[in-house]
Amino acid sequence: MYSADNLDVARPGEDFVNGLFEIVVCRWKLIAICIIAGAVLAVAIRASGPVRYTATATILPQGNDRGGSGILGALAVQSGLNFGNAAGNEEIFGRIIESRTALAHLIEKKWSHRRFSEPVSLARILGLDADATENAGHIEEERLLAVLRRRVIDFERDPSTGFMSLRVTIPEDPQLAADIANALVHVLEDFNDKGRFSRARNQREMIEARLVEVERDLEMSSTELSDFLDNNRSYASSPTLTMEYARLEREVSADGLVWQELKRQLEVARIDEMRNTLTVDVLDSAVAPVRPDRYGLVFTIIVGCIIGCIAAVLIVAILALSGQQRVRTVD
Fold it and tell me: Quick one: how far is CA 9 from the chain centroid?
């Protein structure tokens, strides 16, 4: 491989690097075997576990194509938030879907699964219910939420089209994956209708209620002024009647000004409510996938190859160090 004479003229660092390189060249078969063995082992471990299915729902918030890339660019303008690009909206919807409030609907509900004869909790389906009981209260909630966010739910946006894909991966039951994905889409729609934009809607409703009161007051004051003029056509000759007329006229004028201001505020509130309304279009509801998740298999093979490569590097390094130690011992 390499001789002691070469080591006499080389520095220790160069000696190790040269020795490592030679071992890599000489041991390429060993490295290849380690990489293949890692991939095979990873696939075997994955095959021993449950088959996973991924269901996908495609959604698109409506909006004019302004202020961002793709169809989704207008969402920042509609929501009144300045994210600089459409990707900010992905974060909004992603956080909504993965929020504790949204996931609580999944945790509290019982789901049908082909492995069980009756509906059970997600904790039991995902294998987190060690006692196999229906009472999920003893399951640590944070652990279940972490599993849902890390292994079950995935949410991303296609930057070229603005389409958002919500993917749910569930072991053994493709229909359950589709049911959970559609349930999360409904949560997103409910949040849009009831939660996120309630402030603008409440503001508009408050102004509308106040406007009804002012319109009633204006009608009453106008009627009172009209009746006064009908009954007192020559009020100008009486100081008392003149003062009464001035008072009634001031009330009508004041109510009219308040009515005009409220009408203006109502139009502004309606515009704000429309601007802050993100309508979620479900382009494709999730359906039960026919085939298991292939992307998981590819990822498993890649991880196995990486682990095998690391193992091969460690073996090569150990061989290089042992070879260097033997040469020094001979010297």
Answer: 61
